[in-house]
Task: structure prediction
Amino acid sequence: MSSGDQNPWWQAQALALAAEAQRRERRQGTTLIIVSSVFVAASLLCMFIGALRLIGLVCLVFFGACLFGGILMRRDPNSRTTFVLTLWVGLLMGLGMGLLFIFTLISAVTYGVSGNQIAVLIVAATGFLFFGVGSVVAMVKAGRTRRKARDQWQARRPQGRTTR
Result:
């Protein structure tokens, strides 16, 4: 490094690591888009088969949300649009888990409970709580934060007319 360089040696390395992490996230987003697209296509195929219609619906909602998540991984993480769309993806995944829970519960009541259904019920309930309820809590928190920032801005703003 030259003597005129003002940046410490570690700053260039930190920037290189951050750029590599961003490239890795974009690659993971591309992989998620490809894999989710395959599952969405399979879900659409299941929607046309009579016995698999409900499974196709659950898979379509869940893997559709995964597809949107992959698209969001390729966008700017600091934009407001990405934040709002991420919350909607979480709600969509929560809806998919909720549908899976309801359909599995109806199946267990109708045909009898098996060990596999109990495992699916536990996973679906956990997914619903994490994605569905978590997204609603994040939306409420984001609304309160935005309202608080607006109130602080209005409190600093001069009252009355200003002349120029």
The two ends are 51 Å apart (CA to CA). The mean pLDDT is 82. The CA atoms of residues 40 and 60 lie 5 Å apart.
